[in-house]
Design a protein that fits this description.
By secondary structure, this protein is α+β, with helices and mostly antiparallel strands. About 45% of the residues lie in helices and about 10% in strands. Helix 9 packs across helix 10.
């Protein structure tokens, strides 16, 4: 955890308690949890429609739908679930917010909630309840969903942790017994893998989740899109160094990464085209659930590691954050909040985390104790993604500007331009600066 996040986490009394009690064994929930109660009274005749992302891990969808069925059986409220890819949820959510019609609840990504905060229902009462009951929200939740420091405009669902996924046998064949812990060693490893004919590959297209590695790249060298006052500073010496490093990395990549979206690195890895990439736990999950013997054979070879630390000397993690938004236009606000409360309670949330196989890192400290994180050692690296992550608009305050800049893939495009040589590092940084300034208007 970064010093900033650690300080923020420990400021609250709930955070202090969570830090003191957090363990790594099987799920053991504090008795105090069961003393907390809250229920919303759904409106008569309520029906709910939920739009949510659907990606990569079937166990996530299956466990989620079991919980939806339980909610309907308990309350009598019919719930329709619409599943869409990450890239499709964002525009549909924006249309719903602008037209005032559509799903009652939307599960989206990163700081999309900050694109239309005035269109979202105030869920502070629910957020406060869950935070007190389950050990406190990790700081990233407040950055994304409590931008004014007061009102909560959404409920955190967690994050798809982005870790380095690699084949141990191919690293060893290239002369590396362990995954490098710094950026210099990381580059040397990629060069060695490329020389062996077992290259790596990282998404440089407009990939909602897997393109976030470019945040790590810039941050690891001290670059930032904006400073703490939301002044755009991406055109900097630190960014130039990061982009020069990106050019060296790109020279070792498999061809085609400039057009990669989120599914591409999964396919490339499982097809044996690459030996290392960044990804959630979905690649490993596939080796355990696929009917393809070739994919199954990769299971023991797949390993996970944290991103290497760059010249700044501290971890700079970027992960795909998931939010849950209740649209203000809903006819059934109480039913919507009761649905989210039900889905976030231990009796439903813990089995869902388990069903997803570690794909979603928890947003609340108490759920770090879930047995899923230690039932398989390969799950553990993903457990603390929300706890350790920097918000995508780091180091500024999240809002319309950060959400818009993120949705426009400014950092990812900049890295792609410089890495591929279509622009010099300086030209790419200058273009990113101008694009970002359109959102962060002075």
């Amino acid at each position: 955890m970064s010093d900033f996040n650690r300080r923020k986490f420990l400021e609250g009394s709930a955070g202090v308690a969570a830090a003191a009690t957090m363990g790594t064994g099987a799920a053991v929930f504090a008795p105090a949890i069961h003393a907390q109660t809250l229920a919303f009274k759904p409106e008569k005749g309520a029906k709910l429609r939920v739009l949510r992302w659907s990606r990569f891990v079937q166990g996530d969808i299956d466990a989620y739908m079991v919980n939806v069925k339980k909610f309907t059986e308990k309350t009598g409220i019919e719930v329709r679930i619409d599943n869409e890819g990450w890239e499709d949820v964002r525009p549909k959510a924006a249309v719903a917010a602008n037209t005032g019609a559509g799903p009652d609840i939307i599960l989206s990504t990163n700081d999309d909630a900050n694109l239309y905060p005035e269109k979202l229902l105030d869920v502070t009462d629910l957020a406060d309840y869950l935070g007190k009951k389950y050990g406190g929200w990790y700081p990233a939740n407040e950055a994304y969903l409590r931008p004014d420091g007061k009102r909560w405009i959404g409920i955190g669902l967690g994050a798809a942790g982005a870790m380095m996924v690699y084949r141990q046998s191919q690293l060893k064949a290239a002369g590396f017994d362990t995954f490098p812990k710094d950026t210099a060693g990381f580059l040397n490893m990629l060069k060695a893998l490329h020389a062996k004919g077992t290259p790596g590959g990282f998404a440089l297209g407009n990939a909602t989740g897997d393109g976030l590695w470019t945040n790590w790249l810039i941050w690891s060298h001290g670059g930032q899109l904006v400073d703490k006052n939301n002044k755009v500073i991406i055109d900097s010496a630190e960014t130039i160094k990061a982009l020069e490093y990106a050019k060296e990395l790109y020279a070792t990549f498999i061809p085609g990464t400039l057009s990669w979206l989120d599914p591409n690195n999964n396919k490339a890895f499982l097809d044996g085209q690459v030996s290392v990439t960044n990804n959630g736990i979905s690649i490993y999950y596939a080796t355990k659930t696929s009917a393809d013997p070739k994919v199954q054979a990769l299971r023991e070879d797949v390993q996970h590691a944290s991103y290497p630390v760059g010249p700044v000397g501290v971890p700079t993690e970027s992960h795909l954050f998931f939010n849950q938004m209740v649209m203000k236009y809903t006819k059934y606000p109480q039913a919507a909040k009761e649905f989210l409360r039900f889905m976030m309670e231990k009796e439903q949330f813990d089995p869902w985390l388990t069903g997803a196989g570690g794909y979603i890192a928890p947003p609340l400290a108490e759920y770090a104790k879930s047995a899923i994180w230690t039932s398989d050692p390969k799950h553990t690296p993903y457990r603390d993604a929300v706890k350790n992550m920097r918000p995508s608009g780091y180091a500024g305050k999240l809002g319309y500007a950060s959400a818009g800049a993120g949705a426009d893939f400014i950092v990812c495009n900049m890295v792609a331009e410089a890495a591929s040589g279509s622009k010099t590092p300086k030209e790419a940084a200058e273009r990113a600066q101008k694009r970002a300034e359109r959102y962060y208007k002075v």
